[in-house]
Amino acid sequence: MIAPRVTPPTPAVPAPRSAVLILVGILLVALNLRAAITSLGALLDEVTTGLHLSGTVAGVITTLPALAFAGFGAFTPWLARRLPPARILVGAMGLLAVGQLLRAVSGSPWTFVLTSAIALAGIAIANVLLPVLVKEHFPHRSGLMTGVYSMTLILGTTTASAASVPIAHAVGDWRAGLGVWALLAAVAVLPWLGPALRRTPGTAGGGTRRAATRVRPARTRLGWAMAIYFGAQSLSGYATMGWLAKMFRDAAFTPTDAGLLLAGVTAIGVPFALLMPTLAGKLRDLRPLVLLMSAAMIASYLGLALAPHAGAIAWVALLALGQAAFPLALAMIGMRARTGEGVVALSAFAQSTGYLIAALGPLLVGVLHELTGGWQLPLGFLVAAAVVQAFAGLAAARPRYLEDEAGLVNAPTTVDAHAGRTVPAGS
């Protein structure tokens, strides 16, 4: 039986004015992708006191983002086969705005959990859609656009973390520090209203049903390699976000200096987030980048275990370089699929499975620290995660397409990773 042939659609290159609007829309969505999480992290003590949260409920809230990203992210391809991306994003940002507003006025712990889940559902859906929007609308600048929106995501993460407490103190209520970010989500809806109201022919991820060519990443080696790579780097990212400041405080840094060192990981990582996807798009072989990111993370963790105080700035810089694996993973998702539907499917599978893996990071680091009373064993665990990340990344970096492995393309083609296109075999 001959597998159904997928003809990659010609990317729709938008007119200049439309391209600007789409870019603004993508960046506004990216700005919202972590604000709901880091604003809560900054105000968790106030929320715990104000709502009388038990330790169990507080633990559920801190684990909820990764679980929501996994669950709702896996649901996104189903939506993408039925609705255009613009309509889905309007709904996603609407969920985010409503969820953040409702949790800011909620009066019970479990209502707070439920409304937080609503907000996180919007983030999870947008997480999956952004790579396909970049590939569809900016096919010749996908690396640069991925870098720009990754940098914008980091900016939103940092801004919400830094501004939520001052806003709450200025108003005199922690609810204001959480609720204000609903306005940012509402603004992110606006650029997508026009495209959402237009009736346009669907591509993959645009509402066309094409069950015969549905891509199933879980049945491919590439899909699992991307999921493990995404999950391992996210595990390290979540673990260090949650515990790095504590590591530095235990190494005799003041709380203020420990916080500044944690912020330094984000600050130093901004240019890496911008440059990494662009560099990936220009290289024929991504394996050196994969090895560089993993080696930097391993060196940072070993340094933190052996000389956390003396080499703190060097370990922060290396960790920032290592965490550029996140924008690299986002870029690879777009580079490893021929079609919009393939990008949606790979993005959903890699992120949903990856975030399930990532949810283990902060938990296991905390358990190992409590068992041993030190940081050597938790850091050894993170070194092991970075080794797994390296092997999975090397497998994902091989130039090939998801649809080929899924048996949906039978034309004798090969991948020109440098040009980012498919060319006849032997050319």
Characterization of this structure:
The protein is mainly alpha-helical and 427 residues long. The protein is built from 18 helices and 2 strands. The protein has helices spanning 16-32, 35-42, 44-51, 55-80, 85-105, 109-137, 142-171, 174-179, 181-197, 221-250, 255-282, 287-306, 312-322, 325-335, 340-358, 360-372, 376-397, 402-405, and strands at 413-416, 421-424. A two-stranded antiparallel ribbon has the order 1-2. α10 runs antiparallel to α11 (255-282), α10 (221-250) packs antiparallel against α14 and α10 (221-250) crosses α16. The chain is globular and about 55 Å long.
Walk me through the topology:
Layout (H helix, E strand, L loop, with lengths): L15 H17 L2 H8 L1 H8 L3 H26 L4 H21 L3 H29 L4 H30 L2 H6 L1 H17 L23 H30 L4 H28 L4 H20 L5 H11 L2 H11 L4 H19 L1 H13 L3 H22 L4 H4 L7 E4 L4 E4 L3
Antiparallel strand pairs: 1-2
Biggest sheet, strands in spatial order?
1-2
Shape verdict:
globular
* Helix content estimate: over 70%
Order of helices and strands: HHHHHHHHHHHHHHHHHHEE
Q: So how many helices?
A: 18
The pLDDT mean sits at 83
Biggest pleated sheet: 2 strands, antiparallel
The assigned structural class equals mainly alpha
Low-confidence stretches: 1-11, 201-212, 410-427
Q: Radius of gyration, rounded?
A: 21 Å
Strand content: under 5%
Short description:
This protein has 427 residues and is mostly helical.
Essential attributes:
427 residues, mainly alpha, two-stranded antiparallel ribbon, 18 helices, 75% helix, disordered N terminus, disordered C terminus
